[in-house]
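Hello K.,

You asked for the raw outputs rather than the summary table, so here they are, unedited. I folded two proteins back to back in the same session to keep the settings identical. This is the first:
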Amino acid sequence: MIYLDCAATTFQKPPAVMEAIRRASEMCASPGRGGYGLSLAADELLFKTRGLAKEMFSLSDEKYCIFTKSATEALNIAIKGFTQPEDEVVISCLEHNAVVRPLASGGRRIKIANFPPECPEDAVIALERSITRRTRLCVCTAVSNVFGTMLPIREIGEICRRRGIPFVVDAAQAAGILELSVERIGADALCIPGHKGLYGPAGTGLLLLSGERIPRTLIEGGTGSHSASERQPQHLPDAFEAGTQNIWGIAGLCAGIEFVKSHPKGEILSAEQALCRRILDNLPAGYTAPGRGRDENQTGVLALLPVFAGCEEVAEFLSDAGICVRAGLCCAPLAHRAAHTFETGVLRISPGIFNTAADADALLRALSAARDALGG
């Protein structure tokens, strides 16, 4: 099997991640709920993981690292915690449903900053023009999950700071791939999944806060602290971590972060970009690459559009050939409207650090075979 759907989740995990999960299942109990060894071991693991996240994402303090079950949960906490129903929120035209749906469900007024996906430099002007005196929040993805477009989030963050607007960044496709600093980006909240570019297990995520603005809590409950009070503790990270932590998953996430940190800066991004470039340079006839901009603005996510058959039909052909890719709207209909692929969707190719040039060549052969078999 050749797995090329790392934008959905990195299926291939480092052996150290699986080993960390196994060890945690044998050595850790609920953190913060006891003074015995198993509970203290869990506490130490949480502390270590927060420290790694602080270092990787330049947090001012470990307490601003909040564990979540996904980037989606982190986005819900940030979006709903920084706004009220009917508030005006500005977003980019490349946002995932993890951003759009929390906004729509509360009746918030969504203003979409439109620009061509292949021209991310236009995002700065589009977002600034969309902000008004009524805007209460700006949410922007760092990288499009459909097209791999890298947005200039640092410049967008500067605009938000000047306008006094909280800035939330969806880093689902960027964390572990790009160098991200909460301080340099100017993000009030950075929302991260554990199971994508950090190579951790599913069911893990991070909400990273700058500390300048703290959103309201979304979930309240037991934290192991201030148990006599019926009110949620307000100190961090306890305020946002009600309920028992996914300690096994966090153990895997910790190992995943260590794995990413063991690579030289930029190596993972360069490896993924090189595979996408190899595919594009040898792309057989019958396919186009909508939304594709300059290579320096693209991560290792490549959207293809077959002109001879539907995307899902081609993806099924590839699956039968042992190649895993994503087809359809990829949970980001706004991005497809911006690229004029809403009616068709795309065939999304997203390699990871474990993929090779041989994988790319096998995909190219399969794409040619799909065209010959389905194009008649």
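The second followed immediately with the same parameters:
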Amino acid sequence: MKTLLRYLVSASTCLVLGVPSAQAEITDNQPLFNQGTTLSIQIEAPLNTLFNDQRETGEPVEGKLTVNAPGFGTQTFDIKLETRGKTRRDSKVCKFPPLSVNFKKKEVAGTLFAHQNKLKLVTHCQSKRAAYDTYYLQEYLIYKTYNLITEESFRVRLATIDYTDTEGKQSVSGRYGFFIEDADNLADRLGRERRDVARVPATDYDAAAASRVALFQYFIGNLDWAMLGGPEGEKCCHNLKPMFSANGQAIPVPYDFDYAGLINAKYAVPPASLSVKSVRTRLYRGFCIHNDALPANIQTFKDKKSEIYDLSQNSGLLPDRNVKSIVKYYDAFYEIIDDPNKTERLLLDKCRG
């Protein structure tokens, strides 16, 4: 039994566990993610071919990306585009799938896209279904929320994008999208490294980082992740990137939040392995071995509460009804972590052994 006594660890221990690892040398040479302004972008490519043939063949198409950004002016780059993802790559889910944008290294030096090579671009998914617009914008805000919690997170940059189909069939104007920081660049920024491994034992994870991820996934109601391994035949981990220090200790960095209960996308379903009927249902999936680090992370969420609420309430990206739904979902979480008995029953006692 994980008792309340374990929850009430000393304040000094909480403070130590709550900060990023002192071993990490934070470096940053990515102008793309150093500003928060919304970019204005135009993408020209044979989109009809990309969305039909490339989903099957995997062959990228060539195109051009033009961006207007403060401090850099207007710049145009030759790019290659590929569709990506799993669920959202399915044409039955997304008519406009997520993309990978591949730049030429010789073109990006000294530009907004300096030190970028291949970037993930989250797109609007559907052009004629308004509800889908809120999905990816809420996902963008989830990334930004985790940025508030820790530097050990993927950064994102929002853009309004005009897509011109050079084949004249799939052009779309004025849609939001966002770039996600490359995993190798994230590792460099944190002074860590990526490793292709099949599994990462729970004991190899930094307890504070692992507990923080589990608590954040609980906060947004996301069950679509795995910390120890990936789907059959794939590398570790599912919707998490483990980043390793020189001594082999790992921190998990989460991504891909569209199945979160906070968003409640029409296509999102709970994992079949769990007895959960709705993605809106929260279920704590942290590991018992990391429980001692949980109080410090709970305190971080309390300390960041006003910033977290403010981000969603004042983003200007979502309709009022979605903002109210987000606030209500947040309120339910804070009711739990503000009550030691609920914290023990719904978090500490639900950990995985």
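Residues 130-149 form the longest helix (20 residues).

Happy to rerun anything if the numbers look odd on your end.

Regards,
P.
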